[in-house]
Specification:
- The structure holds 2 protein chains of 2 kinds.
- By secondary structure, chain A is mostly helical.
- Chain A has helices at 20-50, 61-64, 67-92, 96-126, 135-168, 174-205.
- Chain A has a single domain, classed as Four Helix Bundle (Hemerythrin (Met), subunit A), CATH 1.20.120.
- Helices cover 77% and strands 0% of the residues of chain A.
- By secondary structure, chain B is mostly helical.
- Chain B has a single domain (12-554, 597-606), classed as Up-down Bundle (Cytochrome C Oxidase, Chain A), CATH 1.20.210.
- Chain B is globular and about 70 Å long.
- In chain B, the strands form 2 sheets. In chain B, strands 1-2 form a two-stranded antiparallel sheet.
- Helix content of chain B is 64%, strand content 2%.
- Classes of the chains: A mainly alpha, B mainly alpha.
């Protein structure tokens, strides 16, 4: 039951679920992601209700969105999900160094996604699509911005975890943290898939 | 290595600020929730004093709007939910044979975010006006066009912060109940109160994020000039109604389900009978929880969604009467043939049953969409929801407090004063709200600060006000009871009602810090009752005596929530402070992540039957 009863040097096969604390953390995080699903679901609903309220003279979604740029961002974020899987696989094999490298790659990809998104938002504001322009613009920036804030939080979180593992090593305390951070990262990715479809593809075609 | 950690143990105020013990957090919820209950009750009495005669000018129309808004908001979010969380914290881990909740630190964080959110909301009284757009805060009334002061900002931010507490509290109870049950405590052996806490937590998890988004959208509209609800720029005011009630309707089941659980425990204990139809009770609870998400638009029948939508939501709403009826009959059949003891707790429980049925009947009346056009926004609605919330939930809380008080504090509440609380509160309640059905049918509108003379409203409003004062007296009697009981020696037995059926009555009153010296082995439903019937003295232990691992106390939950409080104020007045507040909160999160909590161990020789000091 205590957090540190493993035999030194031997990590259990699934270190994230080796302790009750770890199992609690993983289950609690699944439930948290359930709540997050409702959160983003509501944001999507609000966006869908308001996305045609562009207002006179404001740029429409067809004029704004550049699928090339968004496609690149999507590619980067989806790849980062893959690299986070690699890091968890390395963790399960108790290979700390590859695990850290893949985590670092994930962070870099997440940060470049954020960079692209910030550039995108600047570009839109420049085109006259500000936060207060219309109901469409408010709901667009809120939905995509909530996602962006989640990415920023994830990038910071995983960075902190990398330094923790460097200091404390991989053990039954740090393993659940890495595992739930991985779950979080996948969740962000899934949300983006929906954003890409509902916001960008439907906005371009509609 | 395993036992090497020494942890600083605080005492006095610091103990309460840093505690992660679910029993102490339960007491904190009780004190804070009780305080807000008194505040909301005072607001209610001021409302009734304004309405005791026609064309009264006891309070101004503006003040009346503030009182009305704050009464509803305070009672729902800051009194009812925390009082339920108080009982859930104090009792659920004991009922499943756990030493603590799954996330003790998060549990403390949940309390402090609720507390600071509630304080933030009430700070508005002193800074130029409380929220005044009703507890539902409908737009455009709540938009900057019509609510120009900071009142609604306090509503949005205060509820957002306290909502975090509810959400993480819900997750905590879900994980606790799924992962931390004692050996043998299968799901279908769990006490009914634990079951309802479980379903309520699931509802919290899936309902509160919708409110989070609604409040965020309203906040962005008000503080950053977004256009979610600004019709001139393409916003949509009906969107707010949908989002609010997608949260708001599950919210009323979040409130009432744990009360159902309390009533089940109390009635079964004092009828000295196994709860009738236990598995149908569990199923009915799940069904109510599920249907609770399908009926939100019955709050919007007059919005104009059309006959198809209204019919569907009307039928779905009426369906809820079926599982609720199952519960009512199960309680009646539990009492049937039992040797019933009318303790104060049981009086509240028995009084609950007919009262709640009356609220349920008016609920079905309101669910008929065409008829609702007549009832809508009248005192009939006010009577209905007070019958289910006060007559249901508050009676349930009173029953639970009288029942579990010895387990929380080691002292039995005075039975005579308890019965006096019941009779004054019960009679006062029916005086206040029964007549409001008829006021509504006569056409008296809710939420309006006064009424004309000569409309036949006068006498019934007077009766209602007298009833409200009687309820106030009942509450004061309860407070007197608490103080009187405090002065008595702490001598409650493990099983003070002598008919305890569930695990919490197998351990000392109040429960020691570690709850169970040895985790019990559960051999059936009503675990303790089963051992009693088999002639055993207590529970069979499932493990040898050994050192018990405990989590360390921490000040971080308090500081983290304080940071959110500063952020809330900063968003209204000065963004620099908002940034500082966020830095405090995220800084605490960083510290929590970086410094591991190894906890500490209580060694076998330290184990003794001493309880938490209250």
């Amino acid at each position: 039951m205590s957090a540190h009863t493993h035999v030194d040097g031997q990590l259990p096969h699934e270190p994230e679920k080796a302790t009750l604390e770890g199992r609690n953390k993983v289950l609690g995080f699944w439930l948290f992601l359930g709540g997050e699903t409702v959160l983003f679901g509501t944001l999507f609903a609000a966006f869908l209700a308001l996305r045609n309220q562009v207002g006179d003279g404001n740029p429409t979604s067809q004029e704004l969105f550049d699928l090339g740029l968004v496609g690149l961002a999507t590619f980067i974020l989806l790849t980062s999900s893959l690299t986070s899987v690699f890091s968890i696989q390395a963790m399960h094999k108790n290979q700390v160094k590859p695990m850290l490298i893949w985590l670092a790659v994930t962070v870099l990809l997440g940060a470049s996604f954020l960079g692209l998104e910030i550039y995108e938002f600047f570009h839109y504001v420049h085109m006259g699509h500000g936060y207060t322009t219309s109901a469409f613009s408010s709901s667009f920036y809120t939905l995509v911005g909530f996602h962006g804030a989640h990415v920023a939080f994830g990038v910071t979180w995983i960075t902190i975890l990398i330094f923790q593992v460097l200091k404390k090593g991989l053990n039954t305390v740090t393993a659940p943290k890495l595992y739930v951070a991985g779950m979080y990262w996948h969740f962000i990715d899934v949300v983006w898939v929906f954003i890409f479809t509902v916001v960008y593809l439907m906005g371009k075609v509609a | 290595m395993a036992h090497g950690h020494t942890v600083k143990r605080y005492s006095g105020l610091m103990d309460w600020l840093t505690t992660v013990d679910h029993k102490k957090i339960g007491i904190l919820y009780l004190i804070a929730g009780g305080f807000f209950f008194l505040l909301g009750g005072l607001e209610a009495i001021l409302i009734r004093l304004q309405l005791w005669k026609p064309l009264n000018d006891f309070v101004s129309p503006d003040t009346y709007n503030e009182l009305l808004t704050m009464h509803g908001t305070t009672m729902i979010f800051l009194a009812a939910m925390p009082l339920l969380f108080a009982l859930m914290n104090a009792i659920v881990p004991l009922q499943i044979g756990a030493r603590d909740v799954a996330f003790p630190f998060v549990n403390a964080l949940g309390f402090w975010t609720f507390f600071f959110g509630g304080v933030l909301l009430n700070v508005s009284w002193f800074t130029g006006g409380a929220p005044d757009a009703g507890w539902t805060s409908y737009v455009p009334l709540a938009s900057t066009t019509y609510s120009q002061n900071h009142g609604v900002d306090y509503y949005v931010l205060g509820l957002q912060i306290s909502g975090i507490g509810s959400l993480i509290g819900g997750i905590n109870f879900l994980v606790t109940i799924i992962n931390m049950r004692a050996p043998g405590m299968s799901f279908m052996r769990m006490p009914m109160f634990t079951w309802t806490a479980f379903i309520t937590s699931a509802l919290i998890l899936f309902a509160f994020p919708a409110l989070t988004v609604g409040l965020a959208a309203l906040m962005f509209d008000r503080l950053f000039s977004a256009n979610f609800f600004e019709v001139a720029n393409g916003g949509n005011v009906v969107l707010w109604e949908h989002i609010f009630w997608i949260f708001g309707h599950p919210e009323v089941y979040i409130l009432i389900l744990p009360a159902f659980g309390i009533i089940s425990e109390v009635i079964s204990t004092f009828a000295r009978k196994r709860l009738f139809g236990y598995s149908s009770m569990v199923f009915a609870t799940m069904l109510i929880g599920f249907l609770g998400f399908m009926v939100w638009a019955h709050h919007m029948f007059t919005t104009g969604l059309g006959p198809i939508a209204n019919s569907l939501f009307s039928i779905a709403t009426m369906l809820i009467a079926v599982p609720t009826g199952i519960k009512i009959f199960n309680w009646l059949f539990t009492m049937w043939g039992g040797s019933i003891r009318f303790t104060a707790a049981n009086l509240f429980a028995v009084g609950f049953v007919p009262t709640f049925v009356m609220g349920g009947v008016t609920g079905v009346m309101l669910a008929a969409a065409p008829a609702d056009f007549q009832y809508h926004d009248s005192y009939f609605v006010v009577a209905h929801f007070h019958y289910v919330i006060v007559g249901g939930l508050v009676m349930g809380i009173f029953a639970g407090l009288h029942y579990w008080w010895p387990k929380m504090f080691g002292r039995i509440l005075n039975e005579g004063l308890g019965k006096l609380t019941f009779w004054t509160f019960f009679i006062g309640f029916h005086l206040t709200f029964f007549v409001q059905h008829f006021l509504g049918l006569l056409g008296m509108q809710r939420r309006i600060y006064t009424y004309q003379d000569g409309l036949d409203f006068n006498l019934m409003n007077l009766i209602s006000t007298v009833g409200a004062i009687l309820m106030g007296i009942g509450t004061i009697v309860f407070l007197v009871n608490v103080v009187v009981t405090w002065a008595k020696p702490k001598n409650a037995a493990n099983d003070p009602w002598e008919d305890g059926r569930t695990l919490e009555w197998s351990i000392p009153s109040p429960a020691p810090e570690y709850n169970f010296v040895q985790t019990p082995l559960v051999r059936g439903y009503d675990a303790l009752w089963k051992e009693k019937m088999d002639g055993n003295k207590g529970m069979t232990p499932a493990e040898p005596i050994g050192p018990i691992h405990m989590p360390s106390p921490s000040i971080l939950p308090f500081v983290m929530s304080l940071g959110l409080f500063v952020t809330g104020l900063g968003l209204m007045y000065n963004f620099v402070f908002a940034g500082i507040g966020l830095l405090i909160t995220f800084g605490c999160m960083f510290l929590r992540s970086v410094f591991d909590d190894h906890g500490f161990h209580i060694e076998p020789e330290e184990l003794q039957d001493k309880g938490v000091k209250a």
